[in-house]
Specification:
2 copies of one chain form a homodimer.
Chain A: E1 2-8, H1 16-29, E2 34-40, H2 46-57, H3 63-87, E3 92-95, E4 102-104, E5 113-116, H4 119-126, E6 130-134, E7 137-139, E8 145-147, H5 153-163, E9 168-173, E10 194-196, H6 197-205, H7 212-221, E11 225-229, E12 237-240, H8 244-253, E13 258-274, H9 279-289, E14 294-299, E15 306-314, H10 318-329, E16 337-349, H11 359-369, E17 376-380, E18 383-389, H12 393-403
Parallel strand pairs in A: 1-2, 1-9, 2-6, 3-6, 9-11, 10-12
Antiparallel strand pairs in A: 4-5, 7-8, 11-12, 13-15, 13-16, 14-15, 16-18, 17-18
Helix pairs in contact in A: 1-3, 2-3, 5-7, 6-7, 9-10, 11-12
Chain lengths: 409, 409
């Protein structure tokens, strides 16, 4: 018997018909050779509806209570999916995060899984049950309900797959898999059949819809993750450890695997900062304390002991970030702050680019030829990212998709 | 420090404004001399909405899964009430039935409380928190979520009050208290200031809105229960152990305390049943197995070894009951079954009636004078009940309210 873990997102569970459809898929996977553990998200936009009610009661909901509130959406889904499975004649049992043994720290709203005790799940599987687990949630040592952050039902699924030694983890969603680029921006973007964990990690962090922590977890525990549509029978994209032979084929074919894009980027420039040790932390510590995520950071070379520090934040956090920066700017020896809104991020991603020169140059040249100005550049070993005007994002992604011949990937 | 347990029903929590209103009431009760534990029902008609979704997935929802589904409504309420309390600057913490230590058997949908462990609640109170507990739910030894039956948030409240040795249990609802009769049927019905447990038990079983198990529990543990409106500042009705002096005053004033009414009654008559030992159980055991509640049962005197058995069920269960009875009728020596639909039940209730003759006669005479035919009669020590046509129910209740001079009660 092998264990298959499946995860169904909220859009796949938005109404009774879709719930019945999900139950059929789960039921068809459960047979003589496969035991199934399914994790589910909250139905459709029910999480947003709960947030809306909370916002009418308080501007700053207490994180512990918000977790109690939001965790109910997944509980409802898993009870309903079980009912639909039972209607199909299958034995099924729903488990909350607590019942499923998902222990976490007490960082309400963004808890980390500290331990996974799969005894109850194993017992239910051994009794012939399909197990449906409420995604996105866990429980502390003190029996308080926690949530793992938005989109973290993926994380629940991969963690369960790792803990249960599952054959694979299947993530069902409303898209057919991982695409070479966002199809809304790049019309000839196409679905990939497979992608390596590290590449997917860069794609996920940079725009493609999947919880990055779940990819990391899959990578660490080597759990193959299949991302696929719950609406049709297409084959999806397998995220897995790409072995050497695949790598070599990849090298021959193409080293760029995908173009990742992201909107909602704003840039803050702190001019003429005194260039001395500790200057970066004087700036970024207060931002972290204010819970503002800083993304790309660039520091120019020092001229006469002064440097410019540039970094990006989410557009929605720009006002708060600016007010934090203004407070510390004097201390940094700078009074001048510049702001640039309405930016986007475009990245080329691929493990094949590692140690292979020329990719960055080709990217910059492609953007230049398309008349797109590059605002900032940052790179990792398997990714090159440019910040451009958000209005240029589609043109940039399409041009790069063409330049790196991803049509034929 | 004394502990006050409060319970707020779903209609008192139907929207964010009402939730804020409830939080204000809880906050105003919590002061230097009172610790408050509040239990809450699901918001407005959210339980019905969940049942509706479930009914679109399966005709017969699995009881365990239905309990998981329905228990979420109360969790949402208690998180939202805590947020509203925190917005008012109060320290508050929400607890699920499981967290609150409400252990039950595993009769899903109608679980019985088997044990109450108040350690967590006491700890939270000692830390200065207002504790808001999800009503209507508990947890089994095996950590499965159970619900205690509809309307059982009252039960949660009284059980907590008993377990915490609370000074009193306050039930807030959308009515001002317990009335001498249903005001929709008897225009000059009026709110009572107090009522005894036993009387309330008869009123509750016979129509007045309050979970009868919660009254029993209050009676056993002698927890005074105040039923009051969450919408205004009226004084409500205190349900408590009426002491002898009160009783004497009651006797002087009036022995009938209330007129209880109930709709949705149907009658089944099994004619010419062989009158031998065990005959009743041959009939009522199969009904119990089919989960049909039989209410009033009347057996006529035997004539020539034959008797007629008459009993009432809820109108909504009539079809199922009839088919069960038809199956066993032959065995009982009877082929003939009669049915009477659209009946109602009217009762006069009062401990003062005990050992005092004349009340029954006065009741029957009053109904006769009003031209109302009595279909069945049944009595307990403190109650006399007549089954009448449902169309006569209002006239009957009003006539009895007048006859027993309850205007001046």
């Amino acid at each position: 018997m092998s264990i298959i873990v499946q995860k169904y997102g909220g859009s796949s569970l938005a109404n009774p018909d879709l719930i019945r459809n999900v139950a059929k898929r789960i039921a068809s996977t459960s047979d003589d050779s496969n035991q199934v553990v399914a994790t589910v998200s909250a139905m459709g936009d029910s999480t947003d509806n709960l947030l809306d009610i909370a916002s009418k009661i308080t501007r700053l909901p207490n994180p512990r209570e918000l977790d109690v509130l939001l965790s109910t959406g997944e509980l409802q889904s898993c009870a309903l999916v079980c009912m639909a499975l039972q209607e199909l004649g299958k034995n099924a049992v729903s488990l909350s995060g607590a019942q499923a043994g998902i222990l976490t720290d007490s960082t309400f709203g963004n808890a980390k899984i500290s331990n996974l005790s799969t005894d109850r799940i194993q017992m239910e599987l051994n009794q012939g049950n399909i197990v449906v687990v409420a995604g996105f949630q866990g429980v502390t040592d003190g029996l308080d309900i926690t949530t793992l952050g938005r989109g973290a039902s993926d994380l629940t699924a991969v963690a369960l797959a790792a803990g249960l030694n599952a054959e694979r983890c299947e993530i069902y969603t409303d898209v057919e898999g991982i695409f070479t680029a966002d199809p809304r921006l790049v019309p000839n973007a196409h679905k990939m059949d497979e992608i390596g964990f590290e590449e997917m990690l860069e794609m996920a962090s940079y725009g493609a819809k999947m919880n990055p922590r779940s990819i990391e977890l899959g990578m660490v525990f080597n759990v193959p993750i299949l991302v696929s549509s719950s609406m049709n029978e297409t084959s999806g994209t397998l995220i897995h450890e790409v072995n050497n032979m695949d790598m070599k084929v990849g090298e021959i074919r193409n080293r760029v695997r995908g173009i990742a894009t992201e909107r909602d980027v704003a840039k803050i420039i702190v001019y003429s900062v005194v260039d001395r040790p500790g200057i970066a932390s004087s700036l970024f510590e207060p931002l972290a304390q204010a819970d503002i995520s800083v993304d790309v950071i660039v520091q120019n070379s020092s001229v006469e002991g002064k440097t410019d520090l540039t970094f990006t934040v989410k557009q929605s956090q720009l006002d708060r970030a600016t007010s934090v920066v203004k407070k510390v700017a004097d201390e940094l020896g700078s009074g001048q702050i510049g702001i640039d809104e309405n930016l986007g991020k475009v990245s080329v991603v691929g493990t094949g680019m590692q140690d292979s020169p020329g990719y960055a140059a080709k990217m910059f040249k492609t953007l230049a030829t398309s008349g797109i100005n590059i605002e900032m550049i940052t790179t990792s070993e398997i990714r090159i990212t440019c910040i451009v005007k958000v209005s240029d994002l589609g043109k940039a992604a399409s041009a790069l998709h063409d330049a790196f011949e991803m049509d034929f990937n």
